[in-house]
Amino acid sequence: MAPAADNALIVQSDCSVLLEVHAPRADEARAALAPFAELVKSPEHVHTYRLTALSIWNARAAGLAAEQMVEALREHARYVVPPNVEQEIRELAARYGRVVIARDGDALRCRCLDQVTAERLARDREAGQYLTDRIDATTFRVDPAVRGVLKQALVGAGYPAEDLAGYVAGAPFAVSLRERAASGAAFVVRDYQRQAAEAFYLAGSERGGSGVIVLPCGAGKTVVGLAAMAMVGQTTLVLATSLTSVKQWRRELLDKTTLKPEDIAEYTGEQKHTGPVTLTTYQILTWRADRESEFPHLELFQARSWGLIVYDEVHLLPAPVFRATADLQARRRLGLTATLVREDGREGDVFALIGPKRFDVPWKDLEQQAWIATATCVEVRVPMTAERRMAYALAERRGQFRVAAENPAKLGHLRDILRHYPDGRVLVIGGYLDQVEAIAKDIGAPLVTGKTAQAERERVYEQFRQGALKRIVLSKVGNFAVDLPDADVLIQVSGAFGSRQEEAQRLGRILRPKRDGRAAHFFTLVSRDTREEEFAHHRKLFLTEQGYSYQVK
Question: Global pTM?
Answer without folding.
Answer: 0.83
